[in-house]
Amino acid sequence: MSSWNDFNSAENPAFSLIPKGTLVKVRMTIRPGGYSDEANGWLHGWATRKPETGAVYLNAEFVVVEGKYARRKLWSLIGLHSPKGPTWGQMGRSFIKGVLNSAFGLHPDDQSAAAQAGRCIESFADLDGIVFAGKVDWEKDNDDEDKAVVKVPIMPDHPQYKEVMGAVSPSRTSPTAAPVHLATGSLSPAPNSSVPSRPVWAE
């Protein structure tokens, strides 16, 4: 019998999660959920709203771009709004700020005009395809199984930042339009789309 008819002798799948604490260079893409809220600057349907809870988030996928875990994928939700209070949205804003600092080599304490401009976006489309350094953690998914997620961006003040990121794109210096209401205190409301496992920040 051919090996393509009998799989008893095949090796068991050797798949394990990226270890907790691993620093990886990732490219983030956003899966549009079709939800927009002009008042909050959430345009063009990039956000997703979970009808059951009213929570709004960005459905993000992270692909490791180089190194031992190249091409491995991680998924997380970036909180924009929760009916339960501002915490989830504030955590989402902090995460996005860290992503911009990491991607453009901006020191978190740098308050120069150029650095402040680099932390502004015109829309969530500016985050689609952005490359930054992040730290891997684990969470439970909907089936109570461990999954790898990115919760913490690694910024230029981290001792391993240069090792992970290598050369960084220069920061944006022109003061682009208002910071997509990464300026309101809460990145806010919204509609539906399926929800992959649990969000990075359970709300």
Structural class: alpha+beta
Order of helices and strands: EEEEEHHEEH
Work out the helicity level. 10-25%
Q: Give the tally of structural domains.
A: 1
Low-confidence runs (pLDDT<50, min 5 residues)?
173-203
Measured distance between first and last alpha carbons: 53 Å
Mean pLDDT: 82
Beta fraction of the residues? Answer: 25-35%
Please give the radius of gyration in angstroms: 19 Å
Number of helix segments? 3
Number of strands: 7
Overview of this structure, please?
- Residues 185-196 have a biased composition (Polar residues).
- Residues 165-203 are annotated as: Disordered.
- The protein has 203 residues and is α+β, with helices and mostly antiparallel strands.
- It has one domain (23-165).
- The chain is 14% helix and 29% strand.
- It has three helices and seven strands.
- It has helices spanning 87-104, 113-118, 161-165, and strands spanning 23-31, 35-37, 42-50, 55-64, 73-81, 131-140, 146-154.
- Strands 1, 2, 3, 4, 5, 6 and 7 form a seven-stranded antiparallel β-sheet that branches.
- Mean pLDDT is 82; it is low at 173-203.
Topology of this protein?
Blueprint: E1 23-31, E2 35-37, E3 42-50, E4 55-64, E5 73-81, H1 87-104, H2 113-118, E6 131-140, E7 146-154, H3 161-165
Antiparallel strand pairs: 1-4, 1-6, 2-3, 3-4, 4-5, 6-7
Region (Disordered): 165-203
Biased composition (Polar residues): 185-196
Brief digest:
It contains three helices and seven strands, in the order E-E-E-E-E-H-H-E-E-H. The chain has helices at 87-104, 113-118, 161-165; strands at 23-31, 35-37, 42-50, 55-64, 73-81, 131-140, 146-154.
